[in-house]
Amino acid sequence: MAFAPRLSNSLLLALALLSPKVYAADPAAERISLTPRTDSKQLVEVTIELEVGGTMTIRDGTAEESKERTLPMSANAKLVYDEQRGAPIASSSGPATQAIRYYKDASAVIKVDQDGATPKLADERRLVVAQNPNGRLRLAAAEGQLEREELDLIDVVADSLTVDALLPKEPVVPNGTWAADTNTMAALLSMDSVAAAEVENVLDKFNNDFALVRIAGTVVGTADGSATEREIRGVYLFDRKLGRVTRCNLAVKEKRSIGGATPGLDCVAKLKMNLRPIESSPHLTTEKLAKIAANKKLQLDTIRLEPAKQSFRLLHDRRWFVTSHERETTTLRCVDRGDTLAQCTITGLPAKSAGNQTTLEEFEQDIRFALKQNFGQLVSSRQWTNSFGHHCLEVIVRGATQEVPIEWHYYLVAPESGPRVSVAVTIQGEMVERLAAADRNLVNAIELLPSGTSTETASKVETRR
Fold first, then answer.
1. Among 3.80.10, 2.30.230, 3.40.190, 3.40.1130, what is the CATH number of 4-293?
2. How far apart are the first and last CA of the chain?
3. Residues of the chain whose pLDDT is less than 50?
4. DSSP-based three-state secondary structure for 441
5. Do the bridges between strand 210-223 and strand 193-206 make them parallel or antiparallel, or are there none, so unpaired?
6. For the segment 375-406, what is each residue's pLDDT rounded down to a tens digit?
7. Could you tell me where the DSSP H helices lie in 331-414?
8. Which helix (H) or strand (E) holds 301?
9. N or C, which end of the chain is more exposed by having fewer CB within 10 Å?
């Protein structure tokens, strides 16, 4: 197997953590409990190191028949954070469901062919809340919102809030086995959904202090809107006194298809997660934790988009991916469980003075002119004021392009005076119901910035196809 040498190194490292006496199994013990425990007052420091190597496949155009190119890629990332977990509902046993953490280090070096990137977590967004909803983790900065590259950076395989869910619910015998369910694997491998998981855990060795578990299998599902298949091999160490997994070494071989907004991958990831208890953390004081617990407006999995040199910013859910960014336009795609639901183009428009703004009737006429013969049926038109007090116009048109049913949703967002933006959303007919109000939510979240406002601190978004 391609990553067999990597697995051998991981296993040797795990075995080296303990003296030979640790693995002298107690012959009198018929079954042992590996049930995790959650102490909501316990603080730990977590270190995660990730190394990825392989190839990335992209298309030169947007059409499915566009020429594909395969490029070498590699990535190295390191995360170090202090963490306090929250107990499961109505119980102190079982995997934790929430964690508050402060990232002391969160950075990566990514190389694709001759290009590179060095994403890192901004200082003002190092305090993060993570929740495990029995599936892929949900993350949010405690103050402000994460940008896409920041979310991607900290949403990693074998997050400390996911590994305890691998443990069996019932006591097991030496060399006993148990399966990992689909929700556990979605969380562990940072996947949107898991269609099938054939993953086996084996209690390899244990004593009164520790238990070593081997894990292996295959997982099929979607990640960031793309179909993916992964082979997983590794070991993890359960501290029986602490009541949680403290070390995890994994090798993951992934084959990912090109998605609606993300590239294909053929790579191997090698990951090490280490956890140790600490007495205190200056970043997770009682006052800070209480303030976060009282925050009722925390927006999990909400991403901030503020394109450089454009006069707007907005918040969106993680299904929206930026696919291109030019001086006047930003294009996004909404991708869900492997399907492209919609494409959205946001375009900056010249300012208009108070009293001279476009009316709904004028906006509708502009759209009729733009679509020409493709303009089929006017579905609806309306106007309202969004959450930032901007005037919004909406015109929905149903028609066809090359005999494919299409629904176009056009929006205009304008202040009393100043720069405006138009939003054009294209949806194939069968995806309208699944998209629901996701595009209108985007429009409601658009905040127009005064002319001349600098957004140079916003991250540069590269085209991803």
1. 2.30.230
2. 30
3. 1-27, 89-91, 454-465
4. helix
5. antiparallel
6. 889 999 999 999 999 999 999 999 988 888 99
7. 360-371
8. none
9. N
